[in-house]
Amino acid sequence: MDRFKETKKAGLFGIFGNIFLLIIKGSIGILTNSQAMIADSANSASDIFASVMTFIGNKIASEPKDDSHNFGHGKAEYIFSLFISISMIIVSLKLLFDSVFSLINQNFMEFSWILVLVCIVTICVKFCLYIYTNKLCRKYNNILLEANSKDHRNDCIVTTFTLISVLASLANIYWVDGVVGIGISIWIAFTGIKIFLESYNVLMDKALNEDTKDLILNIIRNYKEVQNVTNFYTTPVGYQYMVVLTICVDGNMSTFDSHALADNLENEISNLNEIYSTTIHVNPV
């Protein structure tokens, strides 16, 4: 499927792009003693892990259903996005400690125009990766791509603030570097927690969102034979949902007609992008 091929490609682009950024940011950050740049390079290390998890998770999720996994392997996307979020939270805590320590002990950075150049290169690379992955995320509704696109977007913002701290050091305002390092760590933690909760909700079989549920009910209302809808249940299957519900029809309707009605409804509902499959039980009243 194009969905899995494009996600694989995005994962590879993310891996190579972040390795490149890790090398240049880490080297320059250590040479200039910039805590903000070191924090930024650690963020790139986290991004490499995220891209690798995207690649592996996508590979597993692309496997078709089999006798052991009747609904496919789609939830692998959420399991691996959970790994990504946990790694982001761990990295953020380490960065927060280092930045506070640097601020308290006044470990000031050495200004270098190379720092400015590295920031500009990072912003350009990350912005291109963000545009690419965000476009795929919107097209395929993939949480792994969503996690990566948010990573790339956040990195653009984070590195912009790193650039500000570098330029501030030129004016001998050194405390900005430590403060920006703290801000970066908080930003990473916030993003990690958000992705964690989204993945956790799906793995805990959170129900379909209300907008799509209302859309399904409106489809059913178009069939005048349906008198009522009961036992409306949904459960996630990968990035889609399985729908199970009961419709109430006139008890005098023939079995053939009621089942034909249910079949038509199942087909129409299952055509929605968010729906994996639909099962409808007919209850005569």
Q: Can you say what the CATH homologous superfamily of the largest domain is? A: Cation efflux protein transmembrane domain
CA-based gyration radius: 25 Å
Shape: elongated
Largest sheet: 3 strands, mixed
Mean pLDDT: 84
Which stretches are low in confidence, meaning pLDDT under 50 for 5 or more residues running? none
Helix content estimate: over 70%
Written overview of the protein:
The protein is mostly helical. It has 2 domains: 2-203, Up-down Bundle (Alpha-lytic protease prodomain-like), CATH 1.20.1510.10; 210-284, 2-Layer Sandwich (Alpha-Beta Plaits). The chain is 71% helix and 11% strand. The protein contains 8 helices and 3 strands; from the N terminus they run αααααααββαβ. It has helices at residues 2-32, 35-61, 76-105, 113-140, 143-170, 175-203, 210-221, 255-270; strands at residues 228-237, 240-249, 275-284. It has a 3-stranded mixed sheet, covered by helices on one side. β1 and β2 (240-249) form a beta hairpin. α1 (2-32) packs antiparallel against α4. The longest helix has 31 residues, at 2-32. It is elongated, with a radius of gyration of 25 Å. The model has no long low-confidence stretch (mean pLDDT 84).
